[in-house]
Amino acid sequence: MRPNGIIIAIDGPAGVGKSTVGKMVADRVGYSFISTGKMYRALAWKALELGLDLEDDGALVKLAGSLKWGFPKGKGPEAGVSLDGRALDLEITDERAGKASSGIARLAGVRLFMRDMQRQAGVPGGVVMEGRDIGTNVFPDAELKVYLDASPEARAERRVGQLRGQGLEADYAQILDFIIKRDAQDSGRKNNPLRKAEDAHYLDSTAMPRENVVAAIERLFREAVKP
Ligand code: DC
User: H-helix or E-strand containing 10?
Assistant: First the structure.
């Protein structure tokens, strides 16, 4: 057992609710929550700000190494990731950062940098970590692995609801198209593609209310920590 508890790895495709569910599970069991997607988004956002070439693995790794990364805790949107002391949320949630993050996440150097940082943050345990490769690559020895899935249509519908709920415009067909393209890029890449770990629990949340997904993961957690 690790000093602070086990590692709960939640992987799955874009827009499946890994962050919402992961945060809720972390709250329920008193663990911290780390969104590794936010890390890729933060680096992509910074690179866009600086006008860096998003195909230049070396330059991106150098940039990543020059930044002061923080993982602020809390329940609000400010929780997650900060760069040089600045908490990032809205600036990294839009589709531009999403697309760019999926692009830079193909690069071997960027992935190694992220993996090392994620390992350092998670190795003491007591953490819920969500991403695409947590159970397969970052923590293949995680004590509990969940692969959260849902149909692309269900994910697009949820995203539309979320955006409209925030008073923003949302086009279902366009969002579905983004989701399908991102799935293809994240699953089709050479370096640590999105994949269910063999020993991960598969949860299809297409027709499942969020609360039930959280309850199911909490049950798996209780089993995993049972003496
Ligand atoms: O989960 P998200 O949409 O915020 O992630 C943004 C992108 O980052 C995603 O399209 C692929 C990449 N990513 C990754 O390759 N590995 C992770 N562990 C997390 C995210």
Answer: strand 7-11
Confidence (pTM)? 0.95
pLDDT tens, position by position, 112-159 = 999 999 999 999 999 999 999 999 999 999 999 999 999 999 999 999
User: Any bridge partners for residue 62, and if so which?
Assistant: none
Which residue's alpha carbon is at the smallest distance from atom 13 of ligand 1? 37
CA of 110 to the centre of ligand 1 (A): 12
Locate the domains of the chain by residue range: 7-224
Query: Is 98 near ligand 1, meaning CB less than 6 Å away?
Result: yes
Determine the Cα–Cα distance for residues 102 and 36; give it in Å rounded to an integer: 12
Q: Is domain 7-224 classified as CATH 3.90.79.10?
A: no
